[in-house]
Design a protein that fits this description.
Number of helices: 2
Structural class: mainly beta
Shape: rod-shaped
Helix content: 10-25%
Radius of gyration: 37 Å
Order of helices and strands: HEEEEEEEEEEEEEEEEEEEEEEEEEEEH
Strand content: over 45%
Distance between the termini: 92 Å
């Protein structure tokens, strides 16, 4: 009797397949079950009296704790993971998917500890195929992944409503991308971190086209703007996120209207309006022929101290040193010059209306 008891102590019964194993063996030789694993049987083992369980392909659910602290809850067939599973990590992240012969395959869901959700195809050892990612802030990325990295054509929808379409290679945008903004603006150019970065073109909501160098989604430094009704601006621009911004800083506006009237302003700008204590405004009716004003300019035109010039053959001749004084008699030359300036400013105002529309949209 003591010999029989001793023999039983030296053997153990595999709870998965029912095979009898020697006590010094920790892995079942029949099904591969590791008895050192921390597990719980969630469903009663199914067997028929007189028939060893290892001969029946019964499905059993287990909870297994791994050395890295993760826990797998799923189904096994003959000791091998097969079927739906959940794998949870101590950090709070987890996978939900399907095991095929011990490996995750097909549609898989992953939620990381920050709350980002990845849904897509898992093949081999990683994400391979169509995938979507949902970020905690509300942004969404969708496209193809290869070896866990975005690869191919993809689309990124940010939380502010802008939409980026581009081609990815090894997780980075290659070539140029396109961004459509919620306010109606449209960008085409270089991309970094899902935003405009590098050389690019921005079509503003009012129809003006801006070209320049972008950083973190907004133009930086000098820009070139072409207006839909003629005219251009080269100078500084204060960009805002979402494809908006205003002319602000030093810049030069130039436009030709009615085929011959040329308007030029060089000076400082504030919120798309002239704002300089010593700006230069020139109005020409023909090459080298017209009027010029240099002095204080704010908003709609000259105001405060300044000098009015008559321009003939490119030479400036001062005709009024008290242009700021409205309560005085004016010569005919001064009155004609003022009329020409008002005419030029009217054209400028019409040209810049598209930027006024842009400012109202972004405020």
């Amino acid at each position: 009797m003591d010999g029989v008891n001793r023999q039983r102590e030296e053997q153990w019964l595999c709870p998965v397949c029912g095979a009898v194993q020697e006590n010094h063996v920790y892995v079942c030789e029949e099904c591969g079950y590791d008895r050192s694993a921390d597990y719980e049987v969630f469903r009663t083992l199914v067997s028929v009296e007189g028939t060893p369980a290892r001969e029946k392909e019964v499905v059993r659910k287990f909870k297994q704790k791994n050395p890295d602290g993760s826990i797998i809850i799923g189904e096994k067939v003959k000791g091998v993971w097969n079927g739906p599973f959940v794998k949870k990590y101590p950090s709070g992240s987890f996978y939900v998917g399907t095991y095929v012969e011990g490996k995750a395959q097909g549609e898989l869901k992953y939620v990381d500890k920050e709350g980002k959700i990845t849904l897509g195809q898992w093949h081999g050892d990683g994400w391979n195929g169509p995938c979507r990612e949902f970020f905690p802030g509300g942004s969404i990325m969708e496209g193809e992944k290869k070896n866990n990295l975005w690869d191919g054509e993809g689309k990124y929808v940010s939380a502010d409503g802008s939409v980026l379409t581009a081609n990815w290679q090894e997780g980075r945008v290659v070539g140029k991308g396109k961004i459509s903004y919620k306010n109606g603006a449209f960008y085409e150019g270089e991309i970094e971190d899902f935003r405009a970065a590098g050389k690019g073109m921005l079509r503003l909501p009012g129809g003006a086209v801006l070209e320049g160098v972008f950083a973190a989604g907004v133009p930086k430094g000098q820009v070139w703007i072409r207006f839909p009704h003629g005219g251009e601006y080269r100078g500084e621009w204060r960009g805002t996120s979402g494809g908006g911004g205003v002319m602000e800083g030093t810049g030069r506006f130039c436009g030709t209207f009615d085929g011959s009237l040329q308007v030029i302003y060089f000076g400082k700008w504030r919120k798309n309006a002239m704002d300089d204590s010593n700006g230069l405004l020139e109005i020409y009716t023909a090459p080298g022929e017209g009027v010029a004003y240099q002095g204080e300019i704010k908003g709609a035109g000259p105001t405060g101290r300044g000098v009015l010039y008559s321009v003939r053959e490119g030479m400036k001749d001062p005709i009024d040193h008290e242009f700021w004084n409205k309560n005085r008699l004016k010569s005919r030359a001064v009155r004609e010059a003022e009329q020409l300036i008002r005419r030029g400013l009217d054209y400028m105002r019409v040209t810049l209306i598209c930027l006024e529309m842009e400012e109202r949209v972004t405020e």
